[in-house]
Amino acid sequence: MKVVLLAGGTGGAMLAEGLYQVLPPESLTVITNTADDLELWGLAISPDTDSVLYRLAGVFNEEAGWGVAGETFAMLGMLKRYGEEPWFGLGDRDLATHLLRTSLLRSGLGSAEATAELVRRLGIQARVMPMSEQPVRTKVTTPKGRLDLQEYFVREGHRLAVSAVEIEGTDQARPSPGVVEALAEADRIIIGPSNPAISIEPILAVAGASIDPARTLAVTPIVAGAALKGPTVEILLGLGREATPTGVARGYRAFASVFALDRRDAAEEEAIRALGYRVLVLDTVMGGPEGRRRLAAELLTGDPPADGPSPQR
Length: 313
Ligand code: FO1
What we know:
alpha/beta, globular, 313 residues, 14 strands
């Protein structure tokens, strides 16, 4: 079974890990959001891609929620010695990824090939593909002005009110080489439990035309009124959008035909079915490694009935 996961942020990377554990590794492709990418001191940094790489390589820093386990920050300390005021926590081990990626790009590789080289060298058997090789950037409008995604998310600690989210570059950006083919060949496409506005919609803007709703399942990023991590609810409310599983399902209607709803929100099953979805009611809260494998397995085996309530798990 060929599976393609659309992933951005924490939840997407966690589900990537669960799928990698339960599938034959070469049958998984992860398409990552690149609209969070940034350049610092000349280095190309891809947070959503790197969190997938590190999780699949088994080196993810669970405590920090990003970067490499056992991280140190000596390099940042020296930059501060030089009077820099770094607000983005670049760890010493994480830095190796940015140095190698940047040198691969400078040698003429596209970002998809550079990512594939990092995947190979990390010994990862799945495919990890950035959604596009052209620059796509999420801009967030706040009381402090229009910020890059990481300025909003990290420098300002995603505390500012958001009144608009724009994804720049999508008209010029094409899917990376291999993305259209991966989506066409997929038996199942999964929209990961990621922030729709800043993590998934950039991928849909670039590759959405290649997504067949009949083969696509979306996982709720909101459980019992909150996201498990990050400002999903705040951003959706700031945009005047409904910050509920039903609201998220409404936004994905053109791209998915199955919606994985958390059992804590089972009351919304009928409303989501009324949108035309088949609904899987599951425990979508992954917790640790076992939970990631469990949810991945349930998403792959769960085949919701065309009508009538899903078996409560
Ligand atoms: N998130 C933070 O909250 N603080 C940081 O200092 C930080 C540094 C960082 C460095 C590399 C990287 O790949 C990710 C990093 N992140 C940090 C997380 C990042 O902002 C998020 O993973 C996503 O971009 C938001 O979905």
